[in-house]
Amino acid sequence: MSVDLQTVKRVAHLARIAVSEQDAERMTGELNAILGFVEQLNEVDVSGVEPMTSVTPMEMKKRQDMITDGNKAVDIVANAPATEENFFLVPKVVE
Amino acid sequence: MSDLTHLTISEARAKLRGREISAAEITEAYLSAIARANPVLNAYVTVTGDKAREMAKVSDAKLGKGDGGALEGIPLGIKDLFATEGVHTQACSHVLDGFQPRYESTVTSNLWADGAVMLGKLNMDEFAMGSSNETSYYGPVINPWRRSRLDTVVTPTTHQGDGGFVSAGGAKTARTLDNAQLVPGGSSGGSASAVAAFLCAGATATDTGGSIRQPAAFTGTVGIKPTYGRCSRWGVVAFASSLDQAGPIARDVRDAAILLKSMASSDRKDTTSVDRPVPDYEAVIGKPIKGMKVGIPKEYRVDGMPEDIEALWQKGIAWLKDAGAEIVDISLPHTKYALPAYYIVAPAEASSNLARYDGVRYGLRVPGKDIVDMYEKTRAAGFGREVKRRIMIGTYVLSAGYYDAYYLQAQKVRTLIKRDFEIVFAAGVDVILTPATPSAAFGVADEDMNADPVKMYLNDIFTVTVNMAGLPGISVPAGLDGKGLPLGLQLIGRPFDEETLFQTAHVIEQAAGRFQPDKWW
Fold first, then answer.
1. Mean pLDDT computed over A54-80
2. Is A66 inside a domain boundary?
3. What is the model's pTM?
4. In chain B, what are the domains?
5. Which A residues 32-91 touch B at CB under 8 Å?
């Protein structure tokens, strides 16, 4: 399978990365080289093989559903580019 | 030894405990070595001198009372991927500009609890994506090793048995070093370069496809990627969560064992962290390997592999045989599919993990006409080319209509790769010996590698299988190539059997000797 310029632009938008026409053209070539490389996986007979979901057999750890941490609003917003009264500030989302 | 920076961790530990040297002295020695070398090698992105001095002072007080921890007063470098409270933590990306976490990663907390001293944060490929440390926002790291001039005959440089330190050209050889700058490998290139150039006693690193073992091999250092789940991933900036593991890079096998013991733990904050006690890895060093079954996989003999590497592999086989190990030929038939499967699984996980960098909660923000425009501009400006490439691949293979063809297929192939190892271990093989990399260190801005991303990816051809199967792997220096550059051998073990790796790697180290670059920086 290979990607065309339109697909690259669509994927870039899905990934929320702005691309110029020139970027998109370069990426088309690069992505096709990588997709060409991974194509060889189709040679492998995987009939009856379960996809890997966990690399080591382990049971998901569970914990009590209770509050163990919190009251860290100041810490949480400390690195944000724009905040007000412990809220993250973003451009207007709903008109 | 007048230069304190040349002490191994075990040597420094003894001298610190014996009060022959102080933590303050050894810390100052490293800080001045960094000040001299870093403008050239670019191994550190931040040096935390004041913090290091404070920590050393506390260590000296503890050592004075005789209650120092396992790493009391030992100065370490920390890869920029680990969250360190109040200190630069950016995964060497522009998108995390100015980020200083309000918390400490579990691995570094463990090290500080054992008394280690932090010298600073180490350069790396952006978000650990790269094999040459050239994708860092902070510029490439330079390998302290250089090729010797082509017309020079390299003298044998390894002593049998004594395990002593050997200079790259032998003390008496007037060998001229080539001026070409070489990469230290990646993504833990800063860690490897700093350890090899005596800019820290040891370093933390991480390995998703070979990022500890490949740079260790390129710099003549020892690097171990432990079993998935052995070190907590909490507070480590995520790249591909089912593959990422932390581990140390050190100057010898014993030091790597000492560091891993402190780094590893069970951690309730990481649900994939294993609930098993951490063994005393150092205790197995020096134990004989007589009767151990060592597997040699035929699939690791690849086309175009330099003769030097094949010869090194044969040497490694001979050393282990001489030590009483039984050598058996084995087959891992799905080996060639590990790298293509990795380049689906790792980008897929990365595209999801890196979705969080949106200019809202931390790091860079580039304003836009609305919120989506802000996201797109922020991410376009914040991520480098390689990171964008991988996010794009990951987004594509996970997008509607392609999931089964790519991601599901890759995860099925991954099951087969793991099964190959399980069959071999079930047949009684204790450890597998392979080359660590298909070449020695290459030049900065190598044209071939930069023109073709797949060529760069092939650096991980021998290491990536281990991540795909979640196994432990160690890279140990085993010799120099015809141009005087270090080469490593890799040992792969059963899940959570890091002890056998340290034990066997030590046998190789004893036979091969140890290697250090001629100082030019």
1. 90
2. no
3. 0.95
4. 4-162+181-284+293-336+414-516 (3.90.1300.10)
5. 33-35, 37-42, 44, 46, 49-56, 58, 60-61, 63, 72, 75-76, 78-82, 88, 90-91
